[in-house]
Amino acid sequence: MKIVGILGSPSVSSRSGTLLQHAQAALQDVASSLHTISVRELPAEALLHAQFDHPLIRQALHEVHEAQVVLVSTPIYKAAYSGLLKAFLDLLPQDGLRDKTIVPLATGGSIAHLLALDYALKPVLSALGARDILDPVFATDPQIPKHDTEGYRLLPEVQERLGRTLQTVVARNDEFLRQEDAAREREALLSRLQVSSHDDTTRWASSDVRWST
Ligand SMILES: Cc1cc2nc3c(=O)[nH]c(=O)nc-3n(C[C@H](O)[C@H](O)[C@H](O)COP(=O)(O)O)c2cc1C
Known about the structure:
Layout: E1 2-7, H1 15-27, E2 33-38, H2 44-48, H3 55-66, E3 69-75, H4 83-89, E4 101-108, H5 116-127, E5 132-133, E6 137-140, H6 156-171, H7 173-212
Parallel strand pairs: 1-2, 1-3, 3-4, 4-5, 4-6
Helix pairs in contact: 1-6
Bound molecules: flavin mononucleotide.
């Protein structure tokens, strides 16, 4: 299956980033492609000025377009998802998440805004065409403590909840593989049609020339 992770944290060392990394690691064996879009690493001006023709913005949008599974990970900011994430989601086409399976992930200071994913993020995902939104995984900061040496680690209870949601994704691997095969066949057929219609055009052009002499 083709997977992309979108990370909406502005921090270099990030809890929502750690949650996303664990999710991606758990799906590695079933992934035919696995990309990460860390929105903070996109060029800020191109992002904020909606420069769709910037190569890095184009590449990120293409990765979302190609993906079958989209992991969306964000810190909770001011009782909602991050503005950074929204800046990127605003660049997606109106139906940019249609026919994709979405896994919402978030970290917050406490459980106070646990429902932010339901009342804030999910409506945006739906507006982008997403109809297959899996159970969100939310973790508080104490559930993702600092690692002894570097970064963060997930407490077992978070790993367990994450594992349960991702199990649904893994269980659908055959379905995703069939979709990939069908897409490949469709592309092959289309490119054959384009080649043969190009041949025809060439023939028409040369016949036209013959007729006119
Ligand atoms: C500007 C800002 C606003 C925040 N607002 C909230 C909030 O409303 N509710 C909450 O639970 N946590 C809030 N937090 C805490 C972060 O959501 C939390 O620390 C999160 O794990 C950070 O994720 P990150 O390390 O991936 O950036 C806020 C943090 C910052 C910096």
